[in-house]
Design brief:
62% helix; 281 residues; 9% strand; cell membrane; three-stranded antiparallel beta sheet; Phosphatidylglycerol--prolipoprotein diacylglyceryl transferase; 9 strands
């Protein structure tokens, strides 16, 4: 148990022996908002609400399992000695990148089974996913995890943060960098950016809203991960999330360039809304 000063209670309420954690409440709230926005955008793009609901029903458990397994695998030295804690996901300890990998696999398989264009579905989901990530980081805040290096009280006050947030950043006898907050703000800015640009005519080709999300998120994650003290490490040398961020950023930008060059060899392509566009016009 972490030693803290004026920390917030991570338990939202108790129902007899059942404890409802703020972590779960915040994640569930993010999911509900994300699904509502995805259904609305999906209807605009010709995707049936039932297809989105069915996909979410499949994606949620696999995403959660993948996020937890990713974390457990890279912390196996601990969990191999404490196997009973592997299922204690309510105490935190999930990896967003693991969840995204699991979700992407489900989306591809589901869309192929329902004959829904994979890139179109990913474009619909991308802005809502990064919004959910931004909200979900506040679950880390309540659990006092995903924090950064030791800092000073004066530094936190200089950020003009409310006192209750500063108090929550007092962890293990010292004030910490609120890296959860940095990433949350970055994610929510990404959500605003994608929401305000995704319908601009000619700006995105199909699949590029999703690729822009990948580039945006991985770019910000690289820097916030570098400030954290609880990073998952590979061989105690490489921060796994930073390495993966570099691969995803370069890969998403490279894929956009490659797809656009390829499309110049074809007269027709689908724009971001799924409409045919003539490159000669």
């Amino acid at each position: 148990m972490k030693t803290v000063l004026g920390a917030l209670n991570p338990i939202a309420l108790k129902l007899g022996p059942i404890e409802v954690h703020w972590y779960g409440v915040i994640i569930a709230t993010a999911v509900v908002i994300a699904v509502a926005l995805a259904v609305r955008e999906g209807a605009r793009r010709g995707i049936r609400p039932d297809d989105i609901y069915d996909m979410i029903l499949w994606a949620l458990p696999f995403t959660l399992i993948a996020a937890r397994l990713y974390y457990v695998v890279f912390q196996w030295s601990y969990y191999s000695q404490n196997p009973g804690e592997i299922v204690r996901i309510w105490d935190g300890g999930i990896a967003i990148y693991g969840g995204l990998i699991g979700a992407a696999i489900v989306v591809v398989l589901f869309c192929r089974s329902r004959f829904v264009p994979v890139w179109l579905m990913l474009d619909v989901a991308a802005p809502t996913v990064i919004m959910g990530q931004g909200i979900g980081r506040w679950g880390n805040f309540m659990n006092q995890e995903a924090f950064g290096r030791v800092t000073s009280l004066s530094f936190l006050q200089g950020l003009h943060l409310p006192q209750w947030l500063i108090n929550q950043m007092y962890i293990n006898g010292a004030y910490r960098q609120p890296t959860f907050l940095y990433e949350s703000v970055w994610d929510l800015l990404g959500f605003v950016f994608l929401m305000t640009t995704r319908h601009k005519h000619g700006l995105y080709k199909q699949g590029e809203v999703f690729l822009a999300y990948v580039a945006w998120y991985s770019f910000g994650r690289f820097f916030t991960e570098g400030m954290r003290t609880d990073s998952l490490m590979l061989f105690n040398v490489i921060r796994i999330s930073q390495a993966l961020s570099v691969v995803l950023f370069i890969g998403s930008i490279g894929l956009i360039i490659w797809r656009r060059r390829r499309l110049t060899d074809n007269r027709w392509y689908l724009d971001g809304s799924g409409q045919k566009v003539d490159t000669e016009n």
